[in-house]
Amino acid sequence: MAFLGELSVALLCLLIVYFLCVRDRKRLPPLATESMFTTIAALTTSDAPWFVLSLAQKYPGRVFRMRVPQWRPWVVIADGPTARAVLRARAADKPSLYSNFDGMTAGWASFFTSPDGPRWEHARKGVSHAFTSSLIRDKLDALQSCAALGLRLDVLSASGEEFDAAQLMIELMIDVLGETVLAGFDFGMLRGGGDSSGMGLRFLEAVEPALIEYALKRTNNPLRKLMAFAIPEARAAGRAAVELMRIANEVMEEFRSRREAAASASEREELDATIIGKLVSNPNYAHEQERAADVVTFLIAGHDTTGFTLAWTIYELAAHPEIADRLAADLRSNNEVTPEHSEYLAAVINESMRLWPVAAMGSLRVLAEDLALSDGAVIPAGAICSIPFLPVHRTAPVQDAGTFKPERWLKNVEPSLKENFMPFSTGRRNCVGQTLAMAELKRFLALIVTGYKLELVRPPKSDYFLTLKPADGRLRVSRRPPMSH
């Protein structure tokens, strides 16, 4: 009898524990029905953002789980307000998955891949002042790249030759990075390779194999690192990463030489105020190669993001000549309407970035504490949150969300439009270079639209690989006639 009594007590305790667990069990966001195989296969193709978009459109709350080879929940957040809550949360950090990207900098962590902490904080704060509006405006006013772009477009206009806008804008942005981020370094891509030992071409040749290996293949296959010595492409990517770091060190050496040769204290102060100047003078780096890793990061992050945004916008303007004509008239009609202050130009850029956010798959965060959702579901602590910007933008509850309509940004802007718009991310880990990027977009789009008419020969295809590229499109340009008075 005593035994039965003890057994009854034990069973009662188990029942109490069970019911407490059931009561406290968290209701997680819905799990997508697609198999793990289907999901992984889709995420490793150029259609990854569109696959996630198709899933997001199935769930009213736009928050759901995907089946991926992770022991903890993988939660996709396509709802803007929820995404903002995660990106701005102090209890959310970058997951260790980002360490795969360190392979691109020969194993050295950059401020992009580093979690919150001293390494990230000193690098971010160190360069922030160099991105102030006044410094950027002064630098853009002196850009030689504007003249070089005009010359290239004049040649294309005279010949009637078709061209790939994405390729041209990438060449432009590498030159602009040299002039802005690297304080006047001459890549000379628009002139065919530059004066610095073809460094721009060397960079482009090295960056693609490194990105494919470390940002794609090793992220999707954690075991690949163990077999890298036996895989020719992996070995080639390792050499490409070393080349990227070599380029960064050459750039820093050239900057230091120019600074030492500066003729005056004011010239040295001007150099020190640049982004490369802030990186080189920051005393908090533990090793010189950490600086080099951050130089590589700025080069990678700055050339294709802004370049492809320019290209997407140009293609949209070519597809909508009435919008291009209105924008040209707005910029040409009044000398007081500068690119920096044109509301319509800002609307065109916003609408292009809404439809075609180049960081289409956005950011990852890992939660340190539970996050309760408005529908009662909970994203548990430890979950990896994927915040893909293209689905966030395109599932926003706004009218004609898939249509290019700059006017939606001009008057009575819908709150849901702003809430679901984050091309530069948000929170403390947002894009440090967004002020420079917007200034560049405005400056170069104004130059192109006011000077040239765009003819769409072949619309581009969407091609995603870390950034959303307009691939295989073709344009023609012709000189825009002078304004009639």
TrEMBL record:
The keyword Membrane does not apply. This is Cytochrome P450. Its cofactor is heme. SUPFAM superfamilies: Cytochrome P450 (SSF48264). Heme binds at residue 431. Gene3D superfamilies: Cytochrome P450. The keyword Metal-binding applies. InterPro entries: Cyt_P450 (IPR001128), Cyt_P450_CS (IPR017972), Cyt_P450_E_grp-I (IPR002401), Cyt_P450_sf (IPR036396), Cytochrome_P450_monoxygenase (IPR050121). Keywords: Heme, Iron, Metal-binding, Monooxygenase, Oxidoreductase. It holds the Pfam family p450. GO terms for molecular function: heme binding; iron ion binding; monooxygenase activity; oxidoreductase activity, acting on paired donors, with incorporation or reduction of molecular oxygen. It comes from Emiliania huxleyi (strain CCMP1516). Belongs to the cytochrome P450 family.
